[in-house]
Amino acid sequence: MLKKTLKAALVSVGLVSVAVPVAYADSLVVEVPRLTLEVNNKIAMETIKACEAKGIPVSVTVVDRNGIIMVKMRDSMAPPVSLPISQKKAYTAVMFNANGSQLTRQAEGALPTLGEGLAFMAGSVTISAGGRLFGAVGVSGAPDGMVDEECAAAGVEAVQMDLEMM
User: At residue 143, what are phi and psi to the nearest 5 degrees?
Assistant: First the structure.
């Protein structure tokens, strides 16, 4: 009986010692949730459609949580300059985890001179769900940045319920 108990204890200790390095190794890995290309495309298309419904041709850029471009598109009649502006708006929103309209005060400080590619203006929204930041959408082409931002919000809204269900 003592032999059986001792053997069971040794097996248990052996299993624990094998499991410890595995658990430790797992803690060295960071899992980052990312949106699929299909979801990013849907956000971009729904954003353009929202502005199209207002009669406004725009450009849209969707970036991931690191500010890397996932989708970049320009409506056929949107001014060419709107494309790089939409990218800067999206990048700025995700870097500061805030919609563009919340960042306009930063335009008055030193930040715009320090960071290349930043645009502290209305026209972008973050993409988040379940407490996780996935990226941002930047829009340019409307006569007012708040209209750009409304269109970006409509694009995110098209997938928001699905993101919340993940």
Answer: -65, -15
